[in-house]
Amino acid sequence: KGEFVTIIGPSGSGKSTLLHILGGVDVPTKGSVVINQTDISNLDETALAIFRRRQIGLIYQFYNLIPILTVQENLTLPLLLDGRKPDEKQISTLVKRLGLENRLDHLPNQLSGGQQRVSIGRALVNNPALMLADEPTGNLDSENSKEMISLLRQFNKDFNQTVIIITHDEKIANSADRVITIEDGKITGDEVRIG
Asked: Quick count: other Cβ atoms within 10 Å of Cβ 7?
């Protein structure tokens, strides 16, 4: 809990598959996946969907924002899908930390580089225990890439959230608390870094 982890390895090594299994998107063929004392591999579809919505934040490389929804609507969508009313104070704090105060009425295609912050916000709105990011900086320039990792690191520290990032970026990998290397579907390295 609370680790900032990167998963590295060559293309086709199983990194995304592992991330999808951890996120409950794919089901393991054997073994179990335990998150916050819950074995998600034994949950039925409904219970798994609820668990994912409440405990897991997913950030994809291409953000998967709903293009016809505003920033505000994209941010609060996970809460609304869960039948909960957004906590205005929490949303306001999140929006401020993400620097989106003046963008709430914009559509995703009007953000010019801010889509990754909306994606992070949507993944964080439920204050999940686990944040999973699949190549989140893959299509960003170096400045936006640095900003995204900085935001994830900030939330990791402030809320003790576990963050797991798949990356090919050596700088991101080397900045992690723990680096897991995967080759041919197997973990070939697990290095904990202190300091």
From this structure: 26
- Between the alpha carbon of residue 19 and those of residues 15, 67, 180, the distances in Å are 6, 25, 12
Q: Listing from the earlier edge strand, what are the strands of the sheet with 4-8?
A: 56-60, 130-134, 162-166, 4-8, 178-183, 186-192
Strands 38-39 and 34-35, by their bridges, are antiparallel
Structure confidence by residue, pLDDT tens digits, 185-194: 899 999 998 7
- Predicted local confidence at residue 78, as pLDDT: 83
Q: What tokens does 147 get?
A: 């900003």
| H or E segment and range at residue 163 | strand 162-166
pLDDT digits (tens, 9 = 90+) for 18-49: 988 999 988 888 999 998 889 998 899 999 98
Q: For residues 159-193, b (16+ Cβ closer than 10 Å) or e, as one string?
A: eebbbbbbbebeebbebbbebbbbeeeeeeeeeee
